[in-house]
């Protein structure tokens, strides 16, 4: 099992933003997990910075939280809006 370094983790999501948006949406980790079709343990690991997340899963989470994928990215990625996450945002918007 590989360890996720802080730099690698930062490339995927901003754990504090995921938690903040979930709480603002009035959802528990279990409710968000069910809606985003992931386990509640995975949501917990994402929020605690112990797991990375694919663009597709982050897009599902953002959709359920009523925000854009880019709102959940690490601060250093927000200006760049990496291509993978921009495409994920477009797929969520198209639903």
Question: Which helices and strands appear, and what pairs or packs with what?
Answer:
Elements: H1 6-10, H2 15-24, H3 29-36, H4 40-47, H5 55-65, H6 83-94
Helix pairs in contact: 3-4, 3-5, 5-6
Describe the structure.
- By secondary structure, the protein is mostly helical.
- It has six helices and no strands.
- It has a single domain, classed as lambda repressor-like DNA-binding domains (434 Repressor (Amino-terminal Domain)).
- The N terminus is likely disordered.
- InterPro entries: Cro/C1-type_HTH, Lambda_DNA-bd_dom_sf, TransReg_Diox_bact_type.
What order do the SSEs take from the amino end to the carboxyl end, as H and E?
Answer: HHHHHH
Q: Structural class, from helix and strand content?
A: mainly alpha
CATH second-level architecture: Orthogonal Bundle
The CATH class, by name, is Mainly Alpha
CATH fold-level name: 434 Repressor (Amino-terminal Domain)
What global shape is seen? globular
Radius of gyration over all CA atoms, rounded: 12 Å
User: Largest sheet, described in full?
Assistant: none
**Residues in β-strands, percent:** under 5%
Number of domains: 1
Tally of DSSP helical segments:
6
CATH 4th-level superfamily:
lambda repressor-like DNA-binding domains
DSSP strand tally: 0
C-alpha termini separation? 35 Å
**Average pLDDT value?**
77
The low-confidence runs, each spanning 5 or more residues with pLDDT under 50, are 1-11
Q: Can you give the helix content as a percent range?
A: 55-70%
At a glance:
This is Helix-turn-helix domain-containing protein. The protein is mainly alpha-helical and 95 residues long. The protein is 57% helix and 0% strand.
